[in-house]
């Protein structure tokens, strides 16, 4: 019985010992020329078709609206608005992502920073502090 098994093993074809090669055929996507390429429903010609006046106006508008030329008061307002928007957005995010501890830790750091700034403001300028707390709808004791 063992002799038959030994003969069967010895009679294996040599082809089975060769490595198996698997091929995946790759087809490259078609090349797009500049006149046919588009994204979001706009062709390149549509984007470049703005006149010089429109482009100049857009550049001026960006310069006016950027915070690079803003005063310190405007920068503070923008930072407060961004912080308030972040605080208001987080509870919905936290309900959907219960295991997102990194964001929760970041929020707690922002809340602590806000608490320290409000504490400083209360010490230095009480009427302004009361106005800020009323505007943000906070309870600060």
Question: What does the model show?
Answer:
This protein has a two-stranded antiparallel sheet with strand order 1-2. With 141 residues, the protein is mainly α. A hairpin with a 2-residue loop joins strand 1 (38-39) and strand 2. It is built from 6 helices and 2 strands. The mean pLDDT is 72. It has a domain at 71-136: Orthogonal Bundle (Helix Hairpins), CATH 1.10.287. The chain is elongated and about 100 Å long. It has helices spanning 2-10, 44-48, 52-65, 72-96, 101-124, 126-136, and strands at residues 38-39, 42-43. Belongs to the universal ribosomal protein uS15 family. This is 30s ribosomal protein s15. One of its GO terms (molecular function) is structural constituent of ribosome.
Q: What descriptors fit this protein?
A:
elongated, 6 helices, mainly alpha, 30s ribosomal protein s15, two-stranded antiparallel ribbon, 141 residues, 62% helix, structural constituent of ribosome
């Amino acid at each position: 019985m063992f002799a038959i098994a030994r003969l069967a093993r010895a009679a294996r074809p040599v082809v089975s010992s060769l490595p198996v090669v698997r091929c995946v055929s790759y087809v490259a996507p078609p090349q797009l020329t500049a006149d046919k390429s588009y994204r979001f429903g706009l062709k390149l010609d549509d984007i470049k078709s703005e006149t010089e006046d429109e482009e100049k106006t857009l550049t001026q508008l960006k310069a006016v609206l950027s915070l690079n030329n803003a005063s310190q008061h405007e920068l503070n307002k923008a930072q407060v608005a961004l912080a308030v928007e972040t605080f208001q957005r987080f509870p919905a995010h936290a309900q959907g992502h219960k295991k997102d501890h990194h964001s929760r830790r970041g929020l707690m750091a922002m809340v602590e920073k806000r608490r320290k700034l409000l504490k400083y403001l209360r010490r230095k300028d009480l009427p302004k502090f009361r106005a800020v707390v009323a505007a943000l709808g906070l309870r600060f004791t």
